[in-house]
Amino acid sequence: MSKTSAVSHDTLPRIETEWDMATIVITSAVREKRGIRSREHLFFGTMTVVIALVVFIGFAQTYYLAGVFGAKPLAAPIVHIHGAVFTSWIVLLLAQSLLVGTGHTRIHRRLGVIGLVLAPLMVLLGVMVAIEMVTRFAPITAVDSPGIFAVALSEITGFAVPVFFAFRFRRNPATHKRLILIATIATTTAGFGRWPVAVLLHRPFPAMLAAFSLLGLMFAFDLASMRRVHRATLLGSAWVVLVELSAVAIGHTTAWHAFVVHVRSLVG
Fold first, then answer.
1. Measured distance CA(157)–CA(241) in Å, rounded
2. DSSP secondary structure letters along 196-215
3. Domain residue limits at 85
4. Within a domain: residue 86?
5. How far is Cα 80 from Cα 63, in angstroms, rounded to an integer?
6. How far apart are CA 76 and CA 125, in angstroms?
7. Mean pLDDT per 10-residue section of the chain, whose length is 268 residues
8. 114 within some domain
9. CA atoms within 13 A on the CB side of 168
10. Please, which residues have CB within 8 angstroms of residue 261's CB and are 6 or more apart in sequence?
11. Phi, psi values for residue 50, rounded to 5°
12. Is residue 5 domain-resident?
């Protein structure tokens, strides 16, 4: 009995020490995970605000603050509807980012239904506005309307594919939020292209590069936080860059100009 007691007393401190070490390791892991989540919430929340500012600055003079700047009325009712739906998407993005950051994930999921409605509407209205624009600018030879039409459609396509997969993988938060952000960044080319800055104003390619810089920030964040680029960041960004750069190349071809003429004939 005395030997057994001695063994028990000798092993007890060792067991307690191992238990304490395991507790410290688990606690450290939990703290590290919470720290990563906090950094992610901060980054994605900041990116959402940046996107909202890009859009606001770009469309302030012609839409959001049109009365202040004495801007001309919008060309057609469909442009008003498109602007309202797109703005609703940006507001929803800001709200969703805030809800996740403050831990209100249940409300976040419920509001996601609104996104499921807005996303296809944005695609449909984006195509309609692009067609309206290329038809309206047809008599103005100084405007490269076929080229602008190609860029507009590329933004819509750049948005549609990532947002589709974002909802497809909505149960995977890391993938979902990256694809939602990438899809929205795809549409910022239009916003950058309307900034009152000579290097960007009505210049699609520089505006694209400005939008791509936001994608670059996502790469940098992934590398800094995970030491690798998340697959959603890589594939989603690659899609946006490929589609939008292809539009610049295709928009000047004879075949594309013939296609635009055909589209105009169909519209009337």
1. 11
2. S-TTTTT-HHHHHHHHHHHH
3. 18-267
4. yes
5. 9
6. 12
7. 52 59 54 66 95 97 92 90 97 94 90 95 97 90 89 97 97 96 97 95 94 98 95 98 96 95 88
8. yes
9. 8
10. none
11. -60, -45
12. no
Answer for the pair 244, 189: CB distance below 8 angstroms, yes or no: yes
Q: How many residues in the chain?
A: 268
**Structural domain contains residue 181:** yes
pTM: 0.86
The amino acid sitting at 245 is L
φ, ψ (nearest 5 deg) of residue 202: 55, 30
Q: What angle do CA 242, 245, 251 make, to 5 degrees?
A: 125
Q: How far is CA 20 from the centre of its chain?
A: 44
Q: In 10 A of CB 84, how many CB atoms?
A: 12
Q: Cα–Cα distance between 219 and 187 in angstroms, integer?
A: 18
Q: Cα separation of 172 and 167, whole Å?
A: 10
- Quote the number of domains for the chain: 1
CA distance 83 to 77: 10
Contact 112, 170 (CB under 8 A): yes
